[in-house]
């Protein structure tokens, strides 16, 4: 009997370690294969292909056992059969009563669900309905415009157990519901975390530990610094849109040079975001001619009011010439939360993708602000961002909304509310008036560049950051004061900001003299990047000066925020400044009585409202005219050449008292 000899093959240890390293890099990708179900073409008896996905018609025989339809529904088809409309959106299924698609789930995990809506006829645009899944309402009071250029896609991420998973379509009243296509497929493992830091407008709020049990509805998916990405360009068929329209000030940011090679994933799943997200970025637009390069880049997003949102921020350092630059910077959410971002905290290589997750409460402004800014201890004083995703956590209300939500106690509460409504309104009016008189203004924050605290206060470092307690959005919809002036009108008034019309320059920006088309003489105050004042001051002046009139207050004629501008338009005081009348012998001098009146008026404005208030607080961030308490971030002159808002009692000359030095 012949014996078979065994041969031992020896492999060098370095080779084995290298192979193990290669395997570790690809394990996340190898562990997940993009599923081929479920992709349903609703109301169709044929299959169609879209972006590499094969959508199966729900009328075909191949769907036996994979899903079922409940309730009454009918399939409809676009009679025009326009060649411009993709086949997937030429059919739909209509529901006249509460109905559902019920899917069989064989693997538990996190799933991506997409509902496609395209109104190819006027009849479909009349639909009004709700959609729910896993007992969570994901679409409310929904309708689809007729013949929109592209379909509306509602995407949500949800954890599903093994068994049956229904998606309900519920018409409102006598209306109906419809859907063109449905995607339901398993996401990669650990696609969403179980917990994340909880952040609100007031700052850090601890941790949110229940993410996996919630449905996440995608609100924004942004490819920062890059182009629109269609499903063909994404590993999970997602849409990404450019960030430019969300920038508060486009002059603060520039697109980084694109990365020509693939990112260095190093064990990071390529399904978190596609290559093209990490190959592009926005970075600070550093300008040596600018007075200050100490500013933030801010993006502004509309979100649901008083809701809870899951936020994922994507980074990949493609801006540094080498890892030795020791780049680090700050990420800001609202005004009172910051986190240091260090691209080399866990990896020393360039172009390594990573992301940071948060759960963020919104307030009743419906605005979320995300910013990045430089750190003083960074070797390269810049900041960058590659991508951003914002998803609403369905069925959750923000902590502030939950705390203030009254509990209903039945019909007696309703009857009592109706009977006592007028009395309650009167009481609230009195309380509000008393509260405004007793409210203590906050001291102005330092303008110093600190590497740890959030850039805030009057600094352009936080142009989008409102003072604590104030509710501000990024643009005019929340102002709605009827004072908006078009940018073209202001260009006309100032001869396109002719420097010969310049009459001053200060903390906010440059002041120009101008004439509107109706002949009104105006002073135009235009903000500029690097200025020391920003959005809080801009909005406060609009809100306050548009609602009050005072003999010492220069009238606000209008404002402009087009093209990310911050421009305030005041009445023009042609008789000069108080300083000129005090020190310029060529101008008429003020009587001692008039000077005393001015001093008394300014003193009353600076007088603390309560004996216990800190009389040493910096008063440059507030103006309290007699009997009128203004918001704490009202912009005041910080330089003698800036635009003042006080004027001499009864006259048309400016008062430029240096009130920030009055103690």
Instruction: Could you tell me the CATH topology label of the largest domain.
Output: Jelly Rolls
Low-pLDDT windows of residues: 1-11, 13-30, 404-416, 437-478, 608-663
**Estimated helix fraction:** 10-25%
The named CATH superfamily of the largest domain: Galactose-binding lectin
Shape: globular
- Rg result: 30 Å
Main sheet, how many strands, which sense, barrel?
A: 13 strands, mixed
Mean pLDDT: 76
In terms of DSSP E residues, the strand content is 25-35%
Helical element count? 10
Q: What is the CATH architecture descriptor of the largest domain?
A: Sandwich
List the domain count as a whole number.
3
At the first level of CATH, the class of the largest domain is: Mainly Beta
The CA-CA distance between the termini, in Å, is 109 Å
Query: Which structural class is indicated by helix and strand composition?
Result: alpha+beta
Counted beta strands: 37
Keywords: ATP-binding, Glycoprotein, Kinase, Membrane, Nucleotide-binding, Serine/threonine-protein kinase, Signal, Transferase, Transmembrane, Transmembrane helix
Protein name: Protein kinase domain-containing protein
Pfam family, one: Malectin_like
Main location: membrane
């Amino acid at each position: 009997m012949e014996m078979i000899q065994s041969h031992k093959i020896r492999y060098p240890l370095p080779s084995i370690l290298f192979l193990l390293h290669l395997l570790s890099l690809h394990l996340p990708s190898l562990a997940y294969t993009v599923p081929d179900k479920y992709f349903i073409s609703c109301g169709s008896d044929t299959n169609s292909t879209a972006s590499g996905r094969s959508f199966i018609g729900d009328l075909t025989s191949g769907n036996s056992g994979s899903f079922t339809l409940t309730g009454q529904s009918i399939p409809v088809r676009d009679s025009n059969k326009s060649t411009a409309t993709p086949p997937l959106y030429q059919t739909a299924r209509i529901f006249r009563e509460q109905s559902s698609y019920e899917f069989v789930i064989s693997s538990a995990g996190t799933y991506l669900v997409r509902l496609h809506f395209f109104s190819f006829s006027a009849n479909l645009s009349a639909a009004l309905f709700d959609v729910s899944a896993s007992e969570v309402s994901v679409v409310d009071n929904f309708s689809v415009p007729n013949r929109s250029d592209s379909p509306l896609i509602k995407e949500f991420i949800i954890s599903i157990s093994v068994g049956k998973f229904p998606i309900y379509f519920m018409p409102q009243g006598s209306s109906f519901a419809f859907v063109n296509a449905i995607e339901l497929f398993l996401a990669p493992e650990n696609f969403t975390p179980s917990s994340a830091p909880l952040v609100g407008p007031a700052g850090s709020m601890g941790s949110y530990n229940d993410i996996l049990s919630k449905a996440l509805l995608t609100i924004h998916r942004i490819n920062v610094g890059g182009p629109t990405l269609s499903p063909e360009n994404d590993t999970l068929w997602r849409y990404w849109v450019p960030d430019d329209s969300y920038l508060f000030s486009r002059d603060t940011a520039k697109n980084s040079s694109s990365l020509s090679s693939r990112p260095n994933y190093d064990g990071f799943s390529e399904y978190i975001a596609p290559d093209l997200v990490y190959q592009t970025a926005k970075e600070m637009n550093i300008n040596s001619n600018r007075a200050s390069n100490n500013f933030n880049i801010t993006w502004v997003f509309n979100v649901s009011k008083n809701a809870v949102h899951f936020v994922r921020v994507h980074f990949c350092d493609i801006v540094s010439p080498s890892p030795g630059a020791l780049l680090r910077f700050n990420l800001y959410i609202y005004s009172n939360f910051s986190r240091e971002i260090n691209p080399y905290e866990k990896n020393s290589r360039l172009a390594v993708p990573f992301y940071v997750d948060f759960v963020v409460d919104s307030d009743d402004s419906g605005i979320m602000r995300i910013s990045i800014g430089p750190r003083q201890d960074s070797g390269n004083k810049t900041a960058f961002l590659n991508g951003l995703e914002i998803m609403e956590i369905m069925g959750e209300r923000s902590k502030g909304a939950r705390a203030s939500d009254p509990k209903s106690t039945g019909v007696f509460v309703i009857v009592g509310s109706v009977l006592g409504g007028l009395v309650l309104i009167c009481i609230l009016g009195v309380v509000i008036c008393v509260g405004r008189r007793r409210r203590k203004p906050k001291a102005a924050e330092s303008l110093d560049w600190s590497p740890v605290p959030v850039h805030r206060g009057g600094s352009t470092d936080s142009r989008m950051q409102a003072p604590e307690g104030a509710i501000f959005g990024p643009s005019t919809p929340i102002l709605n004061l009827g004072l908006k002036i078009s940018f073209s009108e202001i260009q006309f008034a100032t001869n396109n900001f002719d420097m010969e019309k310049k009459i001053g320059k200060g903390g906010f920006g440059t002041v120009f003299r101008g004439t509107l088309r109706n002949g009104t003489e105006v002073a135009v105050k235009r903000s500029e990047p690097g200025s020391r004042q920003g959005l809080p001051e801009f909005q406060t002046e609009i809100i306050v000066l548009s609602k009050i009139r005072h003999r010492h207050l220069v009238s606000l004629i209008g404002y402009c925020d087009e093209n990310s501008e911050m421009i305030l338009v005041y009445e023009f005081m042609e008789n000069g400044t108080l300083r000129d009348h005090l020190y310029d012998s060529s101008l008429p001098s003020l009587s001692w009585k008039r000077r005393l009146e001015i001093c008394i008026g300014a003193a009353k404005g600076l007088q603390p409202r309560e004996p216990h208030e800190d009389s040493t607080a910096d008063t440059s961030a507030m103006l309290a005219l007699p009997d009128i308490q203004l918001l704490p971030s009202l912009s005041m002159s910080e330089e003698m050449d800036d635009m003042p808002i006080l004027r001499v009692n009864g006259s048309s000359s400016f008062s430029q008292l240096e009130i920030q030095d009055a103690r």
